[in-house]
Task: inverse folding
C-alpha cells in the first residue's frame, strides 16, 4: 500500500437511485468516507415492461451525474479515480447503449454495466467490510429496484452468488395495481418471491444458515421505521443494528393495509419510498419465513463500498476474488483507523490495553465476566484518550462521543455502548444512575461497564508516567484482599502512586481491597 492519500469516487447507477460515495484511502487511517450523495432518478421507471429507458429519466440522470462529478472534483478526486457501474434497469434496457454514449459525451464518464453476479460480488465485499461475518453460515441480501442479490457465505468462503429479478420497482410495476394493495396481489407476490428464491433457500438449508445480513435503502428504511415505532431514535447509524421477526411483523401489520396517503404519514418512512415499501415489506416477510430467520442485521455498506474496495485492491495488484477468504478483522481495523483519525498516541494506548488485558485475565475468577467483554475492554483501552484531539479537559467525555459517533465497523450498537461507557468512566466520575445514558443500559451491560471501567482506571494509573514501565502483573487473591505484584523496568513510584489514587472504584465493584507491590512474587 502507498503511504500517500488517495481519493476515490464510486457511482452506482441503480434502478431507483443514483448514489455516489467519496472516500480517502491512506495506510494509517484506512478508508475514510468523505461524502456521499443520492438522487432518486428512477431510471427504471416504466422500463421493466418496455425495456426502454424513459427520455425524461435519462436527462435527469445525466444532470445528476454532472452534479456528482462537480462534487467529486471539489473534493479533490482525480477524474481517473471516478468509477461508475450500472445495474439492473440499465443492464436490461434495449437503449442502454444510447444512454451510456450520451453520458460519455456530456460528462466524460465511462460507465461499466455489471452483471447480476458481479453486483452480488461487490455487495459481498462491501458488507463484509462493515459487518463481521460469523463462523457459521450467513445469508447476505441486498434489495434493489430491479433485482435482489443473495450471497451465502460460511467459514470456507462464498458458497452462492445469485441475482434475481425481484427488485421492489420491478415487482410494484408488475403486480401492484391497487391502493391499498389487494389480498390477491399479496398472494401473487408471495408466490413469485418463493419461486425465485428456491435455490438460495435450498443452499441456505444445506449450510444451516442462522442469520441474515441486509443491505440497501429498503432494509435500512424498514429498520428505521421499526425504531420509530418502538420509540427509539431513528437518525443514528443503523450499521450492525438488528430487528427481530416479531418487531418486523408488528410493522408489517400496521403498514401493509395502508394506502399511499396514509403511508406518507408513517414516521421513519422516506417519502420517496412510499410506493416501493409495500413490495419491500412482502419480500422481507418471505425472507423471514422461507429462510426461517429470527432476526436480520443491517449493513450500511454494500455495492458502492464494495466497488471502492475492489478498485483499491486492484490498483495495488492484490486482486480480490470471492474465494479470497483471508481473515478480515474489521473490528480491530476500524478501531485503529479511528485512533489514527484522532491522532492518537498509539504506543501509550497499546501499552494500557496490554495492562488492562493482564488484569482482566488475572482477575477472571473474581469479576466473572464472559470472554467477549475482554475484547471490548481492549478496544476501550485503545481508544480511551482519543478525545484529547478536541480538548484535554473532559477528554473522557469527548472520547465517548467520538466512539459513539465514529461509525465503528463490525460492532453492534450495544457493544459500542459498552466501549463508549467504559471510556467515559476511565477517569473522573464513576458510573451513576444519574447519568441517563448509563441508566438505560441493560443490567448485564451496566455490570460490565462497572468492572471494565475499574480495570481501565487501574491500568491507566499503572502507565501514569507514559514510559511503559510496568511490564508484567501477577495477582494473588486471598479472602477480601487482592495483591498486585508488578514487574517493572524502573522504580515504579509514580505508577503505584497513580494506581492507588485510581483503584477505589474497582475495589468497590469487586468488593475487595487492592494492594500494589513492587516486584513479582
Result:
Amino acid at each position: 500500500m502507498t503511504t500517500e492519500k488517495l481519493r476515490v469516487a464510486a457511482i452506482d447507477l441503480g434502478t431507483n437511485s443514483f448514489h455516489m460515495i467519496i472516500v480517502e484511502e491512506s495506510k494509517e487511517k484506512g478508508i475514510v468516507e468523505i461524502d456521499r450523495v443520492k438522487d432518486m432518478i428512477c431510471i427504471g421507471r416504466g422500463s421493466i415492461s418496455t425495456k426502454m429507458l424513459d427520455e425524461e429519466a435519462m436527462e435527469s440522470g445525466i444532470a445528476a451525474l454532472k452534479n456528482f462529478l462537480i462534487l467529486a472534483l471539489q473534493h479533490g478526486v482525480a477524474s481517473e479515480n471516478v468509477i461508475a457501474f450500472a445495474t439492473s434497469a440499465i443492464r436490461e434496457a434495449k437503449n442502454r447503449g444510447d444512454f451510456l454514449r450520451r453520458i460519455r459525451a456530456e460528462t466524460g464518464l465511462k460507465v461499466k454495466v455489471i452483471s447480476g453476479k458481479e453486483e452480488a460480488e461487490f455487495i459481498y465485499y462491501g458488507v463484509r467490510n462493515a459487518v463481521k461475518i460469523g463462523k457459521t453460515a450467513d445469508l447476505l441480501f441486498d434489495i434493489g429496484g430491479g433485482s435482489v442479490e443473495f450471497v451465502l457465505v460460511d467459514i470456507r468462503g462464498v458458497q452462492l452468488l445469485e441475482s434475481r429479478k425481484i427488485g421492489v420497482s420491478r415487482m410494484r410495476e408488475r403486480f401492484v395495481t391497487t391502493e391499498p394493495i389487494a389480498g390477491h396481489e399479496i398472494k401473487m407476490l408471495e408466490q413469485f418471491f418463493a419461486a425465485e428464491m428456491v435455490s438460495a433457500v435450498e443452499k441456505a438449508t444445506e449450510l444451516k444458515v442462522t442469520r441474515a445480513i441486509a443491505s440497501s435503502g429498503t432494509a435500512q428504511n424498514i429498520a428505521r421505521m421499526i425504531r420509530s415505532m418502538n420509540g427509539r431514535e431513528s437518525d443514528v447509524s443503523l450499521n450492525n443494528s438488528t430487528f427481530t421477526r416479531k418487531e418486523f411483523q408488528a410493522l408489517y401489520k400496521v403498514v401493509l393495509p395502508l394506502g399511499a396517503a396514509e403511508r406518507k404519514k408513517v414516521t421513519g418512512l422516506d417519502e420517496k419510498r412510499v410506493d416501493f415499501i409495500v413490495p419491500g415489506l412482502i419480500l422481507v416477510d418471505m425472507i423471514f419465513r422461507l429462510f426461517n430467520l429470527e432476526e436480520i442485521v443491517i449493513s450500511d455498506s454494500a455495492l458502492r463500498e464494495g466497488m471502492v474496495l475492489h478498485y483499491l485492491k486492484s490498483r495495488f495488484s492484490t486482486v480480490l476474488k470471492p474465494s479470497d477468504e483471508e481473515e478480515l478483522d474489521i473490528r480491530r481495523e476500524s478501531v485503529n483507523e479511528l485512533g489514527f483519525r484522532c491522532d492518537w498516541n498509539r504506543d501509550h494506548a497499546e501499552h494500557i490495553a496490554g495492562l488492562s488485558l493482564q488484569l482482566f485475565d488475572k482477575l477472571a475468577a473474581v469479576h466473572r465476566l464472559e470472554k467477549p467483554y475482554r475484547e471490548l475492554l481492549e478496544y476501550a483501552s485503545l481508544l480511551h484518550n482519543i478525545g484529547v484531539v478536541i480538548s484535554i479537559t473532559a477528554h473522557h467525555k469527548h472520547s465517548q462521543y467520538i466512539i459513539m459517533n465514529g461509525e465503528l465497523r463490525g460492532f453492534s450498537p450495544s457493544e459500542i455502548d459498552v466501549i463508549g461507557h467504559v471510556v467515559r468512566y476511565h477517569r473522573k466520575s464513576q458510573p451513576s444512575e444519574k447519568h441517563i445514558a448509563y441508566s438505560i443500559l441493560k443490567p448485564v451491560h451496566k455490570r460490565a461497564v462497572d468492572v471494565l471501567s475499574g480495570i481501565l482506571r487501574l491500568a491507566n494509573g499503572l502507565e501514569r508516567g507514559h514510559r511503559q514501565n510496568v511490564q508484567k502483573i501477577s495477582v494473588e487473591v486471598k479472602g477480601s484482599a487482592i495483591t498486585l505484584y508488578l514487574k517493572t523496568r524502573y522504580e515504579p513510584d509514580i505508577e503505584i502512586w497513580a494506581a492507588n489514587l485510581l483503584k477505589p472504584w474497582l475495589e468497590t465493584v469487586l468488593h475487595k481491597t487492592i494492594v500494589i507491590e513492587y516486584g513479582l512474587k
Q: What stands out?
A: Residues 55-74 form the longest helix (20 residues). The longest strand covers residues 30-39. The chain has three domains: 6-113, 117-303, 331-518.
